Amino acid sequence: MPGKRARRHLSQLSEFARGLIIEMKTAGWSTRRVAGQVDRSECAVRNCWEQWTREGTHARKTGSGAIRKTTRREDRSIVQKALVDPTVTRSTIRGDVSVVIVPQTISRHLAESNLKSKRPFRALPLTPEHRQLRLQWCQARSMWNVTDWKRLCLVMNPGLFWGQVITV
């Protein structure tokens, strides 16, 4: 079954399976026979046996990856800055931290603390009552002409002259 082989290939060897592989290979079994017995690929069996002969251990290696550039204290500082000022940007936080880090690191630390980026409102959210009042105001003035609107603008801004262009 190809699907089973793919899953078996991607899964990690358990501590028990590694010990079993070492015992079978020490007893003189072939790599192909051991692989069939523990239901793993020959490559996985070979790698486990080579690690045993090279290092004398069958323990899994610790995961590789980038070394953390920030300490736990700096991580808390990043989160604290975001909590104190929700409008602070990643570049501002990056400038405040004493270590050179990329903006994605800051985003990851904030996400680990369940802080998501917040976008400012484009407009204030209106309640149904506000919407109704705005609609009534617009309907009452739907038939106004230019002179009516100019009169309203003069009432609102008495310093304007008739000839000025009003920009909104």
TrEMBL record:
Domain Transposase Tc1-like residues, every copy: 75-140
GO terms assigned for molecular function: DNA binding
Main localization of the protein described in the UniProt heading: nucleus
GO cellular component term of the entry, any: nucleus
Cell compartments where the protein resides: Nucleus
Biological process per Gene Ontology, one example term: DNA integration
Matching SUPFAM superfamilies: Homeodomain-like
InterPro entries listed in its UniProt record: Homeodomain-like_sf, Transposase_Tc1-like
Stated name of the protein: Transposable element Tcb1 transposase
Organism, as annotated: Trichonephila clavipes
Gene: TCB1_888
